[in-house]
Amino acid sequence: MNTKPGLPAARTGQAAFIDRVARLCRLSPEGRAAAIRPLSGAAGLGSVDRTCIDGGGDMMLTFAVPTNGALTVGVASALPQRPAPNVRLWRRWDVARPTDVGRSLIFGKPRATDWEIAVDEVEAIAAPPSVLAELRTRGSVYMTARDEPGSGRGWLSFGLYHRQSPRQTLAALGQPQVWATVRDLMTDLLGRPVSDGTRPWSIAVSAAGSEGRIRIGTTIWARMPEHPEKARRLARQIGFFGHDRDLVSGLYNYCCGQARAPRGVGVAAEFDFEDGALKGAHYTLRVPPVGLGPGFLKEVLDGQD
Prior knowledge:
The chain is an alpha+beta fold. The chain contains nine helices and ten strands. α1 (about 10-25) crosses α2 (about 30-35), α1 (about 10-25) packs across α9 and α7 runs antiparallel to α8 (about 245-255).
């Protein structure tokens, strides 16, 4: 395995993990080496940084699943730089096309500076001022994205306040028809009914392009136990979108296999819409601290060609 020289032990384990992910994606040796290169030598790990999506960890795996286009397997890696005490900076890239590197900010406990930091980060927002005003009334800044793996888009995401209804919020944004689709997709993913009273929810607006492009998501998925049925339900939904369910199932099970006690691996499911029409989905997995199991690196290195 060709890892970057000088990586600390935690990052060496992550490099080995990315190499195995790249193998499951059927990349060449050169492609596997390229997939590791964006990994920074310094981590941004810390329990004070814990949010409902990263859980205090410093690596996540993402699946971007468009209704038209190719499935993208992405990596998000925490960096040590901090735009503010409550904000974590993440480097993001497509495993198969790692030269296209993006970034995200994930906001923890709200602070007065969040809005200014978020607006400076995304630079431009496609949504009209009335939509932003509505979302700022109903939630707080949760995440930003620039050059997202797969879509290349930017996003500005708001975590809805606990008392805010996702159905009513979507109606206020002029997209009332979206709720029924989201409810059905989440019910299918969880294997249990999802209602307007389920919490939490986030809604993101596109930083460029169509004014009617939104993303609605939730971390309800993280509460489901890591059981084979959870992975099967995700794979089935990937198949619904017309993509490689076996690849996603293999990657999901590999993430679970690296944890001593798998918990909260599949954490976030988000769905993209444009003027009410479903355009795709985005799923986030927490990568457990890698290299914890006995012989993990040896097992990976022994498998190299």
